[in-house]
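User: Could you go from structure to sequence for me? I need the amino acid at each position, not a summary. Structure tokens:
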């Protein structure tokens, strides 16, 4: 390797056995690597954001803060994630989440070297990023997604209901149409006179944070609306609950819905500003439900009202959507 070695980030609960073993291997040079121990997911993100190159992030499945967003942060810096299982997970659990590989608890030096050789690049110095190792496989099939939004008071939520009911009447969809309330101030529970508080969007996103629920499990988090022919995913119980939803888990949840139904109608808030537009990561995360739905939708429906003010507000929303990246 001409003096090159692996630069490994590590994250694990206190006193994890493999953490100590890996430190011993790197200290004794039985593994040609530099091992950087991290005490929290925030430290991992800070090190990934630096200009230094890392060969891999090795993370314990039981580590606090380990989720899809941490995997995505590593992927954005071309750093493969190697998951160390607790012994209770399936052998394919890590790769399903986006990890490059999964090691069993009590793995040996040879097991580690085999994984590093297959998935990681050795580096000589901490400048520049290694090339991406491989592209993520595209999903085989996803249902069409119709995102419906509009300025407040224009009837976007009722329009979403009408669209879902019309799609449900089409036999091509096999009575597998979902109306998903993704608005920050969710009204679909009120409009449907729902006596249930959950499960809903919050439970769906949490279920996708570290797993890929089967279509039956996803459908079990929705409610049948027999008079209209579709199923309903209840929205946030409080507007401020968006803070508990992580962006990559939201993306995975949307993918789960599109794998589980024949058509998905999303009722979203007409706020799509992101960091590029306003300079705030917090605002982008607050608006991620709307951004994720509109940026991946098959069709975006903008609902407006007549009159000078209505046309002005609808035009402004269409402009905001285009600035966010929705194709005109």
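Assistant: Here is the amino acid at each position, in order:
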């Amino acid at each position: 390797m001409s003096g090159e070695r692996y630069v490994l980030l590590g994250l694990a609960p206190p006193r994890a056995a493999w953490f100590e073993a890996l430190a011993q291997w790197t200290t004794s040079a039985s593994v040609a690597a530099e091992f950087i121990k991290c005490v929290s997911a925030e430290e991992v993100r800070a090190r990934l954001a630096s200009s230094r190159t890392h060969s891999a992030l090795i993370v314990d499945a039981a580590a606090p803060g380990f989720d899809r967003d941490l995997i995505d942060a590593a992927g954005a810096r071309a750093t493969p994630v190697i998951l160390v299982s607790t012994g209770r997970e399936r052998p394919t659990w890590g790769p399903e989440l986006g990890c490059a590989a999964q090691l069993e608890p009590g793995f040996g030096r040879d097991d580690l070297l085999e994984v590093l050789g297959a998935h990681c690049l050795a580096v000589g110095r901490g400048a520049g990023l290694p090339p991406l190792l491989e592209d993520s496989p595209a999903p085989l099939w996803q249902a069409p997604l119709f995102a419906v939004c509009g300025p407040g008071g224009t009837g976007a939520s009722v329009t979403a209901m009408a669209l879902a009911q019309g799609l449900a009447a089409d036999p091509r969809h096999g009575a597998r149409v979902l109306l998903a309330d993704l608005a920050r101030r969710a009204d679909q529970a009120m409009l449907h006179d729902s006596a249930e508080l959950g499960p809903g969007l919050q439970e769906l996103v949490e279920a996708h944070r570290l797993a890929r629920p089967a279509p039956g499990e996803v459908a079990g988090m929705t409610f049948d609306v027999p008079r209209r022919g579709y199923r309903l995913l209840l929205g946030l119980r409080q507007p401020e609950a968006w803070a508990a939803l992580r962006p990559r888990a939201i993306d995975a949840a949307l993918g789960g819905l599109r794998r589980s139904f024949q058509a998905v109608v999303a009722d979203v808030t007409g706020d799509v500003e992101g960091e590029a537009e306003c300079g705030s990561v917090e605002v982008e995360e607050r608006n991620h439900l709307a951004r994720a739905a509109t940026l991946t939708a098959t069709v975006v429906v903008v609902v407006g009202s007549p009159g000078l003010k209505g046309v002005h507000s609808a035009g402004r929303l269409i402009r905001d959507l285009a600035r966010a990246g929705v194709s005109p």
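One structural detail worth keeping in mind: Residues 308-324 form the longest helix (17 residues).
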